[in-house]
Amino acid sequence: MKLPKQIPDFTLPALFARLGQRLPQLPPSLALIAALNLALGRLLPREPLTPLLGKRLAIRVSDAGLTLRFAYGERGFHPSFGSAAADLTISARARDFLALLTREEDADTLFFNRRLQMEGETELGLLVKNTLDTIELPQLRSLSPTQAWRQLRALLSGAHHSGA
Fold it and tell me: Residue 129 has what pLDDT?
């Protein structure tokens, strides 16, 4: 059953993008990397990610002016430095990434409505999309922000067991 949309349709004001482009991109990249590494083996299976080994990835939040650059290696995700182009760049507005994270909308819908763009190696884009589709996230939209945060923390720490 698909729940009604709860995230309003918004685009951050252009000032955010101008400011975000001037700020260091490493701190938000490190936050994303930390979250991805916490999810590895718990929510995010390692085996399907094997084709990502050594690949440079970028998440671009267009209306926030952020481009988070990282790579996947034997030990997990790590920052990607240098000026070389990413092997795969995924771009969307902040609202659309939130909708994807909360499962309010799926990647296919966002892609076909041109609200999610993937540039670079098509095979990597399909791998990322298919991996995201297999992740079982708890239904967070019906919870308060505090409850949702607690449930995610418990899930990432391994304290949450499916079927419990």
Answer: 84
